[in-house]
């Protein structure tokens, strides 16, 4: 137990009530002075030893200073008899239950170490792909140094043989395509649109059809035919008319439309007809109706080619009087050059009636 300096409590109270600061009238108690009821002060400890203990300790110290020890000296008889009251007090103290010790608080655990800072991000490479901004976190190499400084524009020389035969791009090379139900939009404001269409040439080509030619119900309205004639008169437009092939009654529908064309469009303004539109996108995919059962649709390219040949021959067959044929049809109008086999196109060209009706093989880019 650490030594403690004991001071009279009256002195402490006097210091607390004093006006001056820093000065004190208190003095430590001397050994043997009463520091607590029934206890004396000994070497700074209160209650550590009574008067008897002090005397015994003093005698032991004196013996040590003379060179002897308590072990060598004969035991002395204690003439004093033990006090029975003190013995009873000691026994009572032994029977007291042990006092609970205050719980020792554990020091708080140290906080976990902070994680190391993240490494710096790598450089980013950015480029455009299909209209989307793509960013990759990849190291970018330093750009290579040019071999030589660029002094100016390079000179390119080309040689053209003056006697070589050249091919001129036909005026029919470019054209525009429009749905049946949108033709009146141009005719109703023909003064504005004629300057745009004339950019394609003195006699621009307009394909009328698309998805609406296979999905229209009935015949085109009279206003549409009038709009086509109005466009021809305004800027010398020529037309490729789209005929239906998906409906099972396409032969009757196509024949009626071809008769209406003769009524509203001059022959010089008619390039021809396109039979059907992008058959690979039909609801049941590419295929055709059987000849013996016109209501039964059979999928597959062979069924489509036979169906196309039968309808085309019915509406633009070979003349029966032996005169030269007048092929007016285009087909198959495939939706994408990458979705059709070249062998299929050649089969179209070799069909039995193709020499009479096939004006050109068509594939939409």
Write the layout of secondary structure elements.
Elements: H1 9-17, E1 34-36, E2 39-42, E3 45-46, H2 51-65, H3 84-95, E4 125-129, E5 132-136, E6 176-178, H4 183-187, H5 190-197, E7 205-208, H6 211-215, H7 222-235, E8 238-243, H8 250-264, E9 270-275, E10 287-289, E11 297-299, H9 301-316, E12 329-334, H10 342-349, H11 354-357, E13 358-363
Parallel strand pairs: 6-7, 7-8, 8-9, 9-12, 12-13
Antiparallel strand pairs: 1-2, 2-3, 4-5, 10-11
Spans of at least 5 consecutive residues whose pLDDT stays below 50 are: 1-6, 48-54, 67-73, 123-140
Q: How are the strands ordered across the major sheet?
A: 6-7-8-9-12-13
- What is the number of helices? 11
Number of strands: 13
Characterize the largest beta sheet: strand count, sense, and whether it forms a barrel.
6 strands, parallel
The CATH architecture designation of the domain at 175-363 is Alpha-Beta Barrel
Biased composition (Basic and acidic residues): 73-97
Region (Disordered): 65-129
Biased composition (Pro residues): 98-124
InterPro entries: GH, GH79_Enzymes
Walkthrough of the structure:
It contains 11 helices and 13 strands. Strand 2 and strand 3 form a beta hairpin. Among the domains are: 39 residues, no CATH class; 189 residues, TIM Barrel. The N terminus is likely disordered. Helices cover 30% and strands 15% of the residues. The chain is of the alpha/beta class and 365 residues long. Strands 6-7-8-9-12-13 form a 6-stranded parallel beta sheet.
